[in-house]
Amino acid sequence: GVPNCVVSLTGHTTPTESLQISANEELIIAGSQSGSIGVWDLEAAKILRTLLGHKANICSLDFHPCGSSVASGSLDTAIKLWDVRRKGLRCLRFSPDGKWLASADDDHTVKLWDLIAGTVMFQFTGHSGPGNVVEFRPSEYLLASGSSDRTIRFWDLEKFHVVSCAEEEAAPVRCVLFNPHGCCLYGGFQDLLHVYGWEPERKVADLSICNNQLIGVSFAQSTVSSFAVDLGRVTKSGSSWAAQEQGASGSAHPHGVFPSSHL
Description:
Blueprint lengths: L15 E6 L5 E6 L4 E5 L4 E6 L6 E6 L5 E6 L4 E5 L5 E6 L5 E6 L4 E5 L4 E6 L6 E6 L5 E6 L4 E5 L4 E5 L9 E4 L6 E4 L3 E7 L2 E10 L2 E8 L2 E8 L4 E3 L2 E8 L4 E8 L4
Antiparallel strand pairs: 1-2, 2-3, 3-4, 5-6, 6-7, 8-9, 9-10, 10-11, 12-13, 13-14, 14-15, 16-17, 17-18, 18-19, 19-20, 20-21, 21-23, 22-23, 23-24
InterPro entries: WD40/YVTN_repeat-like_dom_sf, WD40_PAC1, WD40_repeat_CS, WD40_repeat_dom_sf, WD40_rpt
Pfam families: WD40
Keywords: Repeat, WD repeat
């Protein structure tokens, strides 16, 4: 029979020179004579965005197998790699050696990028909500991610699997930071700070605010310690708070400096 046009996509103002459809058949990309690349949603039959950067004909296009990246080649002699995901990302972190880049994404995944190859090395799945933060451990191959699903996950970067998952908290994870020596991870929430270990997963300390006091509990081996800070006596210095903390025994000991966003 006579072929029928199923859908018509518009957006380019110069002739189309190349096109590709993603493996999941959700997106179609087309390169034009002017050097622009259009990205369309096939189901909605609408253009999502136009990628600009080439200065001449787009001769060739190809999707990465994972579908999140597109490579383009042009008569301007340039080859470009584009991120065409429809969802955004919320956090980026370079690895300590500068070879990798980790991203926390709105699509609930954590991605590890090879900066030399310019490709996604691995995509970690497991979070049930958008990723908010990622952080590399200063030493060894470990990555931590915090999500709106209120959990923190630890990922092995040698075997590419989850090491452990901290128990679900009462609020989304807002920030994470490894101790400089990598012995623990600080997790920041709306009004408290937790300190985590990961083999096995365990909460090794707690910080919380109650009646204008910062209450803390921690343990090491068989010793359990508690302390309280009167926030009315804390003076702000630059972007940090400095305080004398009253130990459980009643003696005062300087315990450190906490960013004001954590208090």
